[in-house]
What does this fold into?
Amino acid sequence: MFTFKIDEEISLKFPEVSDAENVFELTDRSRRYLREWLPWVDGTKKVVDTKAFIQLARKGYIENKSLTTFILYKGEIAGTAGYNEIDWTNKVAYIGYWLGEDYQGNGIMTRVVKALTDYAFTELRLNRVDIKAAFDNKKSRGVPERLGFVEEGRIRQAEWLYDHYVDHVVYGMLKEEWKK
It folds into this structure.
């Protein structure tokens, strides 16, 4: 099992099909909470749906197009984070994340995104990291804001969320800015 230690409380692990039950249970416990901002929640009805997500995540990694990890907080799976897409031509990583409701308020995601941003610049030698978040999703937007990402714009009606569109705010960090 591949793990990347961030600090004494947090590690990232590569998704294994054997994690499906735990990730599904986390999703199910946080279903109402996650559904407010994530369009895939209603489609995740059984463990087999989570297994399909894991297989897709592993395929993206094998094809060198993405990197999804599960967040371990004090040894328990607390959510996911990673590069939803890696654009090698333009040297850009697009970070995405979610955290179970029980794990909110511990600074987990800020530490995880900081580590992913560091990794993108130092190990993957990318030039830019982008994060998109729904305009009204204050918790998700707080992560790049705390880390000094630049708010670069608002994309109107960027995502269909069950019965309405939501605008996205785009945040960017350049390698030269991150070094400072």
